Amino acid sequence: MELVDYVVLLRRRWLVLVLGGMLGGVLGVVSTVGQPDSFRAEATVFLSLDRGGSVSELAQGSSYTQGIIQSYVLLVTTPTVLQPVIDELGLDTTPQRLAKNITASSPVETVVIEIGATAGSARGAADVANAVASQLAVAVSDLEPSASSNSERIKVTTIAPASPPPFAFAPQRKLMAVLGLAAGLGLAVLFVVLRELLDTKVRTEEDVALVTEAPVLGAISERAGSEPELVPFSGDAGSPRGESYRRLRSNVQFMNLEGTSQVVVVTSSSAGEGKSTTAVNLAVTMAGAGARVLLIDADLRRPTVAKILGLVGEAGLATVLSGRAALADVLQPVGPQRMDVLTSGETPPNPNELLGSHQMGVLLQAAREQYDVVVLDAPPLLPVSDAAVLAAQADGALLVVNGSMTTRKHVETSIQSLLMARARLMGVVLNRVKGQVSSPYYYGPTVAQKPWGLRLRRSPA
Question: What residues form the membrane-spanning segments (predicted)?
Answer without folding.
Answer: 14-33, 175-194
